[in-house]
Amino acid sequence: MRKGDSITGEYRERRDAQTGARIHQLTDHPSINHGLFFLNPSFRPRNSDHVAFVTHRAGHPQLCLFDFATQSARALTDRADVQAFSPGFDPAGAALYFTTRDGGMWRLDLETLEETLLARLEGAGIGECSASADGRHIVTAFKRAGRHGLFLVDVAARTGQVIHESATLKIIHPQFHPGNPELIEYAGDPAPRLWLIRRDGTQNQCLFESTPQEFFVHESFLGRSDDLIFAVWPYRLCRLNLREKRVQTIATINAWHMSSNRAGTRIVTDTNHPDRGLLLIDPATGAVQTLCHPGASSQGAQWKLDHPAGADVWRTIRGAEGQSLSWMEMQADGVYGPQWTHPHPAFDDSGARVIYTSDRSGHPQVYVVELPSG
Q1: How many CB atoms are closer than 10 A to CB 32?
Q2: Which burial class, exposed, middle or buried, applies to 94 when counting CB atoms under 10 A from its CB (0-12, 13-18, 19+)?
Q3: Alpha helix (H) ranges present in the chain?
Q4: Shortest CA distance to 246 belongs to which of 194, 176, 177, 185?
Q5: Is 364 a domain residue?
Q6: What is the spatial distance between Cα 370 and Cα 353, in angstroms, rounded to a whole number?
Q7: Which of 231, 269, 266 is nearest to 252 (CA)?
Q8: In the prediction, which pLDDT does 43 show?
Q9: Alpha-carbon dihedral of residues 98, 104, 105, 110, nearest 10 degrees?
Q10: Does 1 map to a domain?
Q11: Taking the C-alpha atoms of 298, 252, 206 and 335 in order, what is their torsion angle to the nearest 10 degrees?
C-alpha cells in the first residue's frame, strides 16, 4: 500500500441486533484496523464525513482517511515508523499530526500529503499528539533516560521544548484544555492520576490525591468546560472541576473509555466486565441509554481488577528499565491491551455519530454508529 492509494469495496452497513442503531463499517480487511485514540476523535474537524483511521494491512501502521461521500478511503502515509495511537487532527482540519519511533513529531497536510518534521526530541520515546484549541501548539508525553515529561511543540516555528520533567512519576496522556490553550491536563501513572500545568511549564499541580489502590483512569474533558470526566474503575463514572477539585459521581456504572460531545451534554463510553455495549450517559442526571453492542474482545488482564498494575507486573512485559513510553508502543501488551481490541468511542463534531473499533469479526475493524434522533 502506497501513499495516495484508494481502499475500496470494504464499506458495509447494518443495524445493531438489539438496539436497531444504524452502523457503518468502514474497513473490512484481515488485518489490524482501528480508529484514533479516544482522546483524539477520528472525525475530521469541520467535515465529519471524513474519518481518520489506522491500518496495519501493509505490515506496519499507516494513516488513512475514509470519505462517506465515496464510501472509500485514501492511504495518507507509507512509512514504517508511525506510532499507531499517536495521530490527532489540527483544530482547522487541514492536517494530521503524528509521532514516530525516533522521537519525531510530524505534520501531514491532508490535501498534498506532504509530511513536515516539526520537532524531534533526541533519544526519547514520545506518545500521542494533543493540539491546542488555537492550533499553535502540540503537547505530547515523553520518556528519556528513565525520566518522564511533557514535550511542547510550536507548530509555526517548528521548534520543541521540554516544559516539565519528573524522575519519579510516569507521565502519560497530556491533553490541552479544549477551551483554554494555556492549560494542559496530564495523567500520572499510577497515582496520583490527575494533574494540571500551564503551557509554559509553570503552576504544576495535583488535582486530586488519589491513592495507588484507587483506579482513576481514562480522563477527558467534558465539552469545553473546566470539568474532567473519568472512571474510578470499575465502580463509577465521575467528574472533577479544575477549580473545585472535588470528585463527584455521575453514574455508578463500569464506564471504561469515556468522552463527551462538544457541548458537554452527552457522554459516550464503552464497558467491560461485564460488557454492556456502548452507553450514552447524561452528565447532568446520570441517565443511561444503550447505543449499540460492538462485541469487541476488550482484552487486558488488568481490567478484571480494581487497582492498577504494580511495578512487578510491568517488569514481566517490558523489563526492569521499561523500554517503552507506555502501552501505546507495546505490541503484545496483555496487561492493558492490545489497544486495538478496545472500542475507544468518540463523537463527531455534531454529536450525531460515534466511532468505535471492534474485533468481533476476528480482526479489528472501524465502525461508525448513528445516535437515535430526538
Answers
A1: 21
A2: middle
A3: 311-318
A4: 194
A5: yes
A6: 5
A7: 231
A8: 98
A9: -60
A10: no
A11: -20
Whole-number Å distance between alpha carbons of 170 and 193 = 10
Distance CA 96, CA 76 (A): 10
Q: What is the CATH number of the domain that holds 206?
A: 2.130.10.10
* Residue range 246-261, pLDDT digits in tens: 999 999 999 999 999 9
Q: Which region, left, alpha or beta, applies to residue 223 given φ > 0 means left and ψ of -120 to 50 means alpha?
A: left
- Domain assignment present for 344: yes
Q: What is the count of structural domains for the chain? A: 1
Contacts of 285 (CB under 8 A, 6+ apart): none
pTM exceeds 0.90: yes
What is the spatial distance between Cα 161 and Cα 166, in angstroms, rounded to a whole number?
15
pLDDT digits (tens, 9 = 90+) for 358-372: 999 999 999 999 999
Q: What is the largest CA-CA distance in the chain?
A: 53
| Region 164-176 average pLDDT | 96
Our measurement of the distance from residue 369's CA atom to the centroid of its chain's CA atoms, rounded to an integer in Å, reads 18
* 290 bridge partner residues: 279
- Average pLDDT of span 129-142: 98
Which residue segment(s) compose the domain that 75 sits in?
6-370
Distance CA 97, CA 92 (A): 12
pLDDT at position 217, please? 96
Q: Is residue 219 part of a domain?
A: yes
For the stretch 56-86, pLDDT in tens is 999 999 999 999 999 999 999 999 999 999 9
pLDDT-based confidence at residue 122 (cuts at 50, 70, 90): very high
